[in-house]
Design goal:
The chain is mainly alpha-helical and 422 residues long. It has one domain. Pathway: Cell wall biogenesis; peptidoglycan biosynthesis. Its EC number is 2.4.99.28. Pfam families: FTSW_RODA_SPOVE. InterPro entries: Cell_cycle_FtsW-rel_CS (IPR018365), FtsW (IPR013437), FtsW/RodA (IPR001182).
Amino acid sequence: MSAFADRFNPVSLLARLKSLRSGGGGGEAVPIHDWQGPTAGQAPRIAGFDTALVWCTLGLLALGLVMVYSASVALPDSPKYARYSSTFFLTRHAFSLALAFIAAVVVVQIPVNQWERWAPWLFVASLLLLTLVLIPGVGKGVNGARRWLPLGVMNFQPSELAKLGIAMYAASYMVRKMEVKERFFQAVWPMAVALAVIGLLLLAEPDMGAFVVIAMMALGILFLGGVNGRMFFLSVAVLLGAFALMIATSPFRRARILAFLDPWDPVYAKGKGYQLTHSLIAIGRGEFSGQGLGGSIEKLHYLPEAHTDFLMAVIGEELGFVGVSCVILAFFWLTRRIFVIGRQAVVLDRVFAGLMVQGIGIWFGGQALINMGVNLGALPTKGLTLPLLSYGGSAILLNLVALAIVLRVDIENRQLMRGGRA
């Protein structure tokens, strides 16, 4: 574990970079990027941005658009959605994608050093919005949870902004505390207080799933920032203890855990385990190659939230093991590529950019892992969507904004590699 931490420690990376620049190290320097188009007699060049990252993102968004339509096309047959047309969710999702693309194009123009200056204020803004959503008459409640702010064109979910806010704030915090990162009360304790505040606000909604993702991001950035190993593991133990206490003291969460352990028990099969059992049935029906696009039976009012939290189950039923495997591999590659871009930024002496991007990588990889685990019955049910695929306006918006920031970091990395300025 110590070797792994040292590998990603910004101080160690900077030391190795200086050694390579000064000609030390006793060997040929390994390039930290992929050259494109080198030919004999020509100087190698670097592309302006990571095209593979863009195409992978577009592929997942396109699949999500198709599967959201497939999962929601039959919903108007239910009395609950009788007022909606068969293309209602498709149209809304397409509108959210268009809005998100416009936002991403704008965001990719903003220099990373500007985000570093805005980081604390963005975090404060997310806390204010999380507070605002709890005010009766302001926040919108759905199925007993109050998580949305109605904005007319979409219902905005502040917890999505909080994920981006914690990535930026934790990265900025670690840069400011780099000199005292070995001291608990100066390095870890203030961040723990900030995490506790955001946790209390999220649990009041309630939205424990978002809190789990945000906690993973904060602890991951602390670890990658080089916080003392003993303090890191102590923080993880305290957080796990807090989660266990929340589950033990909440009958609702305790019932979910028991239903997860035995969803087929008659006590839970028609209650807390209902979604999980029908998700497993859907994935089981998919077998190797699936029932074909549009061939899902479970989406016909058996599997609740098929177009949001349980979209992966519909993918499994219609596209089978092949489709599920492709989605898993796409997220694995996307997460790995985000981490590579973050590590390149750290090596180029851009610690804030590197830690922020790796925090976004934890967000996408961690949330995708949790959503897939829930759909496959490997994790207890959580109200988390599948990034880039599931229906949800504010989630899609913030997903593309976050990836636009990653792309901006990559663009600036490549400018520095060419000898220019970020």
